[in-house]
Amino acid sequence: MRATERIRAAAAYTRELISGEYLTCVCCRAELFSDDYFCKRCLESLPFNAGYVCEKCGRRIPEDYPVCMECKANMPEFDAARSVFVYEGETVGLIKKLKTGGKHVAEALAAYMLPLLARFASADFLAYVPMTPSAEKRRGYNQSRLLAEELSARSGIPVADGMLVKTRETSAQKDLNARERAKNLNGSFRVHERALCRGKKIVLVDDVLTSGATADAVARALLRAGAQKVYVLTAASVPMRAADGDGK
What we know:
The chain is an alpha/beta fold. It is built from ten helices and six strands. Helices cover 38% and strands 14% of the residues.
């Protein structure tokens, strides 16, 4: 069974266990006649990140290399990152929906992220990328936290709620180069409970990994607080050749 088929089967089985509600496709809202989150047409259109990936950042790469050129030039602080989907096509709409009121999308994405979480089975807990209180108030919720909570419910790995704090608002990352992104995020994340972090293996959960700047800044804070390992799990990632998105 191919990797994408295993992910689909695991997601369908998870939904069968936890949901008895009237089912519609998360993408197009068509009625479903299976236990999946997506209709057949939408599922076939989703770009799974199932080809060659960088062993470090987990983004799609065009050829089979151990690490991508960007990681080779500037190795991330986190130990490894993985994502289920490539951030293009239908996935872009799903992430936008998640960020603009579609909280239910987190359930579907987490179901597909769950098989990848098994790569980090030794994790002590899940963390999520924090927002400033004002930013979270504007959106009404933190989508990364929703994903972490959904993953926790499925895996039994606890969420370290409130351990990470974003100390200040930062400028939008999409118009910045790699050096500017790192400078923009420098010192913007803090570990609130260092004792909880010390010696632990942590999976950082987020919606999208673009350049890896945000994940790297959070990982740096966790490692400086004494974390043993920091892994990153996202719903989607921007492929190496097009890493010019929102700077996550």
